[in-house]
Design goal:
Strand order of the largest sheet: 3-5-4
Shape: rod-shaped
Largest sheet: 3 strands, antiparallel
Number of helices: 2
Helix content: 10-25%
Order of helices and strands: EEEEEHH
Strand content: 15-25%
Structural class: alpha+beta
Number of domains: 2
Length: about 160
């Protein structure tokens, strides 16, 4: 999905040498395809490319520049699941296109995944053999087995 990164509230600064500086802002929603080969103990890099469509770099109409070699995370709210390990940002040209490329390297907290995923599965696995302690004549054996099965099902679908 492509959309503009601006609205009418961002002003442009015009300098006496003809340079126009425009700092648009916006909230971008970016999706990166996950690599789940080593899930819970992995590190992934998400690459975001920004380029002005409809303009090329031959006339220097819209040259993009990165003011820092890192991404400012001062407005970032720390996540319970992910930790941002490193960030980078650089501007370059490829052919006639000027673009800025941002990279975020993040990893998951393994302890969080152990508590959220592995511990409930082990707990359900330990509860399952307890069905044989119930008397077979009572109807509670079937209901207990179904309750453990449903708890597995609910846990794995959420």
């Amino acid at each position: 999905m492509f959309r503009l990164i601006s609205n009418d509230h961002f002003r442009a600064t015009i300098y006496n040498d003809g340079t126009i500086k425009w700092n648009p802002g916006g909230l971008l929603k970016v999706k990166c395809p996950p690599d789940i080969g080593k899930f819970t103990f992995d590190s992934q890099t998400c690459t975001i490319d920004l380029t002005p469509w409809g303009y090329d770099d031959t006339d220097r109409e819209v040259p993009l520049a990165a003011t820092n070699s890192y991404i400012d995370l001062s407005f970032y709210d720390k996540s319970v699941v992910y930790n941002i390990d490193s960030t980078s940002g650089e501007a370059s040209t490829q052919g006639f296109l000027s673009f800025v490329q941002f990279k975020l390297t993040f990893s998951t907290f393994p302890f969080y995944q152990v508590i959220i995923t592995i511990c409930p599965v082990i707990f359900n696995l330990l509860l399952n053999p307890l069905v044989f302690l119930l008397p077979s004549a009572s109807g509670k054996r079937a209901s207990y087995s179904l309750t453990v099965l449903f708890s597995f099902t609910v846990f794995l679908t959420s």
